[in-house]
Design goal:
- The chain has 250 residues and is α/β, with parallel strands linked by helices.
- It is globular, with a radius of gyration of 17 Å.
- It is built from eleven helices and ten strands.
- The protein has a single domain, classed as Aldolase class I (TIM Barrel, Alpha-Beta Barrel).
- The strands form two sheets. An eight-stranded parallel β-barrel has the order 1-2-3-4-5-8-9-10, surrounded by seven helices.
- The structure holds 6-hydroxyuridine-5'-phosphate (BMP).
- 6-hydroxyuridine-5'-phosphate (BMP) binds at residues 22, 24, 51, 80, 137-138, 173, 175, 198-199, 202-203, 219-223.
- 6-hydroxyuridine-5'-phosphate binds at residues 22, 24, 51, 80, 137-138, 173, 175, 198-199, 202-203, 219-223.
Length: 250
């Protein structure tokens, strides 16, 4: 059984895309709009990431239809649930999400391994699904915890990068708003884990700086969703990010 990391790599190469759409829509006719937007932009994507923007109003049943559509369109699906509870609760959430068909989910490392995230990683491995772990978030306040709070005598993000490697996470989440941290974290894990980077555009992160410094996948929401022509915006992000990745690797 191919794991999530491998499926992401294959999808990315097939589509020449490292672009993940954050499908964070709000408002009326949510399911209908989500399905049609996904169809419209899917050619430019390697994956789609859903958040509680859709899960809360649509429920798992509604969201499942989006997951199934993404599968038919040939892209991976990520549920951005940032699991952060005790193990049995995390496990119950992960079981429901994987049952709904998600290829991967996100976790918050703050809750630790034993009776925290261990059961989620074990379940994901047994099903060939992925787990992406937060290492340094993209918003300004992330500094207060991810950098200024110390764990074992080190800034939290450095410890989280090490844990993600030890836990065999399928990827690290590091905000595009701090390209110097992307670089540092890339070196901390010796380039062995892919870096997923949200925060490009709307939050002020630069696509170029994120990729130059080591991001492997780019997560973009509002800079695509809130334009007049989302398909065109997505295609521009795809083309440019693929070009920058090729440039870095050459
Ligand atoms: P946007 O491109 O509209 O800023 O959306 C970014 C998406 O990535 C949102 O779904 C957000 O919840 C998520 N995200 C983030 O912005 N920063 C992080 O550090 C981690 C995230 O999951």
């Amino acid at each position: 059984m191919k794991g999530f990391r491998e499926r992401m790599r294959e999808t990315s190469e097939r589509r020449e895309s490292i672009l993940i759409l954050a499908l964070d829509l709000k408002g009326e006719r949510l399911l209908e709009r989500s399905l049609s937007l996904l169809e419209e932009v899917s050619q430019s994507l390697c994956a789609v990431k859903l958040n509680r923007h859709l899960l809360l109003p649509l429920g798992l049943k509604g969201v499942k239809q989006i997951v199934e559509k993404a599968r038919r369109l040939g892209i991976q699906t990520i549920m951005d649930c940032k699991l952060n509870d005790i193990g049995s609760t995390n496990l119950a959430i992960a079981e429901s999400l994987f049952k709904a068909g998600f290829d991967a989910l996100t976790v918050s490392p703050y809750v630790g391994w034993k009776e925290g995230l261990e059961p989620v990683f074990k379940l994901a491995k047994s099903l060939g699904r992925g787990v992406l772990s937060l290492v340094y978030m993209s918003h300004p306040g992330a500094k207060e915890t991810f950098e200024e709070a110390f764990i074992q005598g080190k800034p939290a993000y450095q410890v989280f990068a090490g844990w993600a490697a030890r836990w065999e996470a399928d990827g690290l989440i590091v905000g595009a708003t701090r390209p110097e941290k992307i670089r540092e974290i890339h070196h901390l894990v010796e380039g062995k884990l892919p870096i997923y980077s949200p925060g490009v555009g709307f939050q002020g992160g630069s696509l170029e700086a994120a990729i130059e410094n080591g991001a492997n996948y780019i997560i973009v929401g509002r800079s695509i969703l809130q334009t007049e022509r989302p398909a065109e915006a997505a295609e521009n992000f795809r083309r440019e990010s693929w070009r920058l990745l090729r440039l870095r690797e050459s």
